[in-house]
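User: Here's a chain of 172 residues. Predict its fold as tokens.
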Amino acid sequence: MLLALDVVVLVAVLAYSGGLLALGAIVAPTVFRSGMQGAADVMTTIFTRFDRVAIALCLAALIGEAASVTLRGGPMTRPRVARGALVVLFALGVAAQSGYLSPKIARMHAEGVQRNVGEAGAEFDRTHNWSSRVGKLTVSLAIAALVAVLLDRKANSSPSGDRSVDAAKTSQ
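Assistant: Prediction complete.
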């Protein structure tokens, strides 16, 4: 059961990271460089949909991590605290991105604001830059959480390779 919960956390942070990296590094530059009419509308729609997926992935990671901590019981070791803190920070980043920055960008776009045109355009550019920074930070936190989960699993595995110890821990 603990392995399954760890897999939920790992899949959630990997899916988020992969999705955001693909959107930011491949999809958005390709769409905007295409010269396609309505490119900003297309990317607004894509990021709005991704935000919904991101929130679901964030919730899965939080629930998986909370259940894992609850079922493991015992003292809170440094690896457990680190991985829990990283998942929470990841979730805060997703919340800031999906709950505030992306909707603000979409709203400004819908109002016809253009980046770097007038004061509203300057605000649009600042918001977009913050969104990019928060996205990069959140991906970094997701990757750090992934490493922390793997290190915690390694630290709690049986050194002799005897899986009966892991099975006994899992059944508790």
